[in-house]
Known about the structure:
Blueprint: H1 2-13, E1 22-30, E2 38-44, E3 59-64, E4 69-78, E5 80-89, E6 108-110, H2 123-126, E7 128-130, E8 134-140
Parallel strand pairs: 1-8
Antiparallel strand pairs: 1-4, 2-3, 2-5, 5-6, 5-7
Amino acid sequence: MLYAILIAFQMIISGNNLNAETGTIKVQVKEFRNTEGHLLVSLFNSSEHFPDKGEKAFRTKKVKVNKKVHEVVFEDVPYGEYAVIFLHDENDNEDMDTNFVGAPKEGYGTSNDAVNTFSAPKYEEAKFTLNSSTKNLSLKIFY
Length: 143
């Protein structure tokens, strides 16, 4: 009995919620123009740092591009509001390359395919809710 109480107390202290619901977010990105470089995917759980600071995202993934369609899976994600942004980093410099006027030279996209012509996408445009065991996102890459 004491052992069970100690485990429950440790879970409470460590921030684990016995009733927390989690799900899986499956991000399918399609229409790559080539198989060079990596796909960098960032999952944000707030508008802070979105979309420019991928290193401060809730979770990130890096996948070698070797086909025209890729699926990236984020597991054990707590139910809530999220937004995804991704980059086809063709030259593997882990940065979005732009031309002389600041337009992207590499493929990118966001959840809800929220891509703006003259500005970075906004969190409010890209957000979605995870409230079931699986959320499937099928997204197009823009070049």
